[in-house]
Amino acid sequence: MSDTPEYEVTVVGGGPAGLTTALYTTRLGHDTAMINRGGGRAAMMLDTHNVIGVPEEVSGNEFLQTAREQIEEYGADYHQDFVSDIERREDGRFDVTAGNVEVVTEHVVLATGFSDVRPDPPLPRTGRGLHWCLHCDAYMFVDQPVFVMGVGESAAAVAMIMLNFTDEVSLLTRGDEPEWSEETQRQLDGHPVEVVHEEIESMEKGEDGWLESFTFADGTTREFRGGFPMYGSDYNTALAESLGAELNDDGTIAVDDHGQTSADGVFAVGDVTPGHNQIPTAMGEGARCGIQNHYDLRTFPMSVEELDEHGGSAPEGAAPGVSDRLRERAREHNANAAAPPVEEGEPEPADD
């Protein structure tokens, strides 16, 4: 008998989408492992925005750590490692290899995200003048001078969009030739966006670490509170491609409404799939994916064909359809949740 741990669901990647998937599959009674290399967009956040019920002062790392503690509390196994290989076995399950971690799993959920393409320095620190999410951070630039870096259609569009929040918007091409269309140029000409073509020579930061200004090659200095680099994204799809999952034209993994890819038993959620790159969006995707995994993997209700294989009725002892390990963990968790709190100084009730 192999000593390799076996799971029903293994989630690769530990951002909000992957963590939510693991939360749902674990609480729905499926042995779940998460293997997470660390990092990612959410981990870079100094503050959390647009997540209802979560105060802004909660950092991305704090947010993720709380979520990791939650899934482990419910019985998921968490591993900090990098998944280097996933291979489909003859029985349809998967061998997952990550450093010193090896698992066998029925389903794989890829929550591998993407990496933003960073422009060359000089650059301010992420969260202190360099921002990656327009929908998260535009609010903080109301009536503040803001920059957008890039030469493509998306950079021009974001520069014009920022006029909804401030009348001081500069589009920085940093010496590169614009790649946007003539129509987009006509739009820019009609909007109060300053297009600056000179390269950045240096920058100034305040005592609090926030960007204050850029000095350009022509000797001019412009003040900025912060801005957005628009140079595209590199999607982490190598594992999906190795398993035969189809990609979209933009490089994301093609999925249905529940995260199922074109490869049987392989799901994908979060920033590696199409859609808005937002924590609440990722959490919604994770919830739908977790529920779909439950539908696919749960023991009951058994089909008529399955019942016939067992003489017309469910095998004795098959219920509940949850592993002994998770069953025990759920009993412990629910007992602790139901226990009344003991006031400080008050003796605990004695056993009869």
Structural notes for this entry:
This protein is α/β, with parallel strands linked by helices and 352 residues long. The chain has 2 domains: 6-115 and 233-298, 3-Layer(bba) Sandwich (FAD/NAD(P)-binding domain), CATH 3.50.50; 134-229, FAD/NAD(P)-binding domain (3-Layer(bba) Sandwich). The protein has 10 helices and 16 strands. The protein has helices at residues 16-27, 41-44, 60-74, 134-137, 153-161, 182-189, 238-242, 279-297, 304-309, 324-338; strands at residues 6-12, 32-36, 77-80, 85-88, 94-98, 101-110, 114-116, 146-149, 169-172, 193-196, 200-205, 211-216, 221-223, 226-229, 233-235, 266-268. The strands form 4 sheets. Strands 1, 2, 3, 4, 5, 6 and 16 form a 7-stranded mixed sheet that branches. A 4-stranded parallel sheet has the order 10-9-8-14, covered by helices on one side. A 3-stranded antiparallel sheet has the order 11-12-13, with no helix packed on it. Strand 1, helix 1 and strand 2 form a beta-alpha-beta unit.
Order of helices and strands: EHEHHEEEEEHEHEHEEEEEEHEHHH
The counted number of beta strands is 16
Q: Which spans have pLDDT < 50 for at least 5 consecutive residues?
A: none
**What amount of the residues lies in strands?**
15-25%
Number of helices: 10
CATH class of the largest domain: Alpha Beta
Mean pLDDT: 94
CATH 4th-level superfamily of the largest domain: FAD/NAD(P)-binding domain
Radius of gyration: 25 Å
Residues in helices, as a percent range = 25-40%
Q: What is the second-level CATH architecture of the largest domain? A: 3-Layer(bba) Sandwich
